[in-house]
Amino acid sequence: MEPFLVTVREAARLLSVSERTIWQLLEHGELTRRKVGRATRVSVRDLHTFARGGVLLVPAQEPLEEPDATTGQLRAFHAKAGAIDLARRWEKGEAKRRALERVRERFGLDEVPHADGLSQRQASWAIDLLAEWERFPLDPETGEC
Questions:
Q1: What is the pLDDT of residues 38-53, one digit of tens each?
Q2: For residue 134, how many other CB atoms are within 10 A of its CB?
Q3: Closest by Cα among 66, 93, 91 to 81
Q4: pTM above the 0.70 mark?
Q5: Residue partners of 76: CB distance under 8 A and separation at least 6
Q6: Whole-angstrom Cα distance, residue 22 to residue 45?
Q7: Do the beta carbons of residue 84 and residue 95 sit within 8 Å?
Q8: Which of 35, 48, 64, 130 is most exposed, with the fewest beta carbons within 10 Å of its own?
Q9: In this predicted structure, what is the pLDDT of residue 145?
């Protein structure tokens, strides 16, 4: 019996493409993402339909979820924020607070996210922002880069 859902790696093997291609197809809604806990799975039926050139109808109410930030990304985020707090003599957590506020603005979120709730894309952007803050000195008037 054929499985109903497969991993991204298995989906890539079945279509003879890279895992990155599967993630892109999921991101663009050409394949439907199924969440099993925190794991992403792909429907075998969707893969067959896609391989035959069919069009998948993704329900409008089902938003495509982005992968959660990795442990490495979260460690990098916390480490860079802590280093900036020390270098700029800010209160502990200030760089993190400012960076998460910028994430909220950049990604149009209603609330300031908690670092553990960031997606991989959001975490990557926040880490790049913190790296920029590490490279450039503060503007004495605004206290920002």
A1: 888 998 888 888 777 7
A2: 14
A3: 93
A4: no
A5: 127
A6: 15
A7: yes
A8: 35
A9: 54
